[in-house]
Amino acid sequence: MKTRVKAQTTAAGIALLLTLSACGGAASSQSPDSAGTNNTSDISEGVQPDAAAVALLPESVKAKGELTVAMDLHYPPTTFLAEDNTTPIGLNPDVARLIAKKLDLKLKFVDTKFDTIIPGLDGGRFDFTATTMSKTEERLKVLDMIDYFKAGNSVIAAAGNPSNLTVETLCGKNIAVTQGSTGQLKRLPALSEQTCTSKGQPAINAVTLPNIQEALTQLHSKRIDGILYDTTALGWAAKQQPDSFTMLGRVNVGSSDLTAVGLKKDSPLTPAMQKAIQSVLETPEYKKSLETWGLDSGAITDAKLN
Q1: pTM here?
Q2: How far is residue 7's CA from residue 273's CA, in Å, rounded to a whole number?
Q3: Strands (E), 86-222
Q4: Can you tell me the distance from the alpha carbon of 3 to that of 163, in angstroms, rounded to the nearest whole number?
């Protein structure tokens, strides 16, 4: 349970760490690297179904007996693979398992690239996603979104911050964001406008990369100046690699800090899902998962349907 990941100081080691070890969260005083990456236990074991939630299930879902959840399984500590390279672990897999148990259904994980999850939901390939997806106006046009966690974005620089950067002094710098993330779509443009272009300074140069592993590798090799991404994942990287990365601070513009489970807009599954998530938020297992992954300050109590 207490296995500690020991990554290499090379760029390849950093990528391996993030591959074996998610968009993002509010870190607490507990270090997420205290969680064992070989822990494949099911947090929902022993949790009882919620009869009121089950009663709201569409008959077609009851007959199928299974929910399919889409996740990009490469973003610790919220969504990643255990050391067996097979079992999904982290906050989001825990929450998904608890939801399925509350609905008395089996659960199937589908590893899905983040920016293809919404088209997959719209096309009926998945029932829902719990992938630390924050709410935006554009997403709410095509998704039903139900709050389950308080999250946010931060900026990370190379160890020691050799350029003496702050979140407010990134004008003209090359800052990585990941494809399809809230950082790319909302946070970085809003930050650039607020701190740079509105004051006659050059815009922040967004370097769009496919995933956080690639971004960390490029930052380690000094090909970029920083990364704007989920606080949870960046905090994990900085704790695992203190000689490689330094946190600069949170970005509080451009999007809500609440993240939500997503379903296809007006899905018949939404009422049952909302009831199940509310039931999950009231369980000790929800709080235990947050504590396990060092995210307990991100707890919420209201599964609001947006």
Answers
A1: 0.73
A2: 38
A3: 88-89, 106-111, 128-134, 143-158, 174-178, 205-209
A4: 34
**Is the Cβ–Cβ distance between 170 and 255 less than 8 Å?**
no
Beta strands 258-264; 143-158: pairing state:
antiparallel
Structural domains of the chain, ranges and CATH numbers in brackets: 11-151+258-298 (3.40.190.10), 152-251 (3.40.190.10)
266 vs 228: CA distance, rounded Å: 32
Are 250 and 153 a contacting pair, CB within 8 Å? yes
Q: What is the pLDDT of residues 63-108, one digit of tens each?
A: 999 999 999 998 888 999 999 899 999 999 999 999 999 999 999 9
CA atoms of 163 and 155, how far apart (whole Å): 14
- Closest C-alpha among 224, 113, 222, 122 to residue 172: 224
User: Under a CB-based contact definition with an 8 Å cutoff, are residues 232 and 77 in contact?
Assistant: yes
Asked whether the CA dihedral 26, 32, 38, 41 is positive or negative, the reply is negative
Can you say whether the dihedral through the CA atoms of 27, 30, 34, 39 is positive or negative?
negative
Are 276 and 69 in contact, with CB atoms under 8 Å apart?
no
Residue 163, Ramachandran bin (φ over 0: left; ψ between -120 and 50: alpha; else beta): alpha
Check if the beta carbon of residue 22 is closer than 8 Å to that of residue 75.
yes
Q: Which two tokens stand for residue 37?
A: 């990456």
Torsion of CA 241, 244, 248, 253, to 10 degrees: -80
Say if residue 201's pLDDT is above 60.
yes
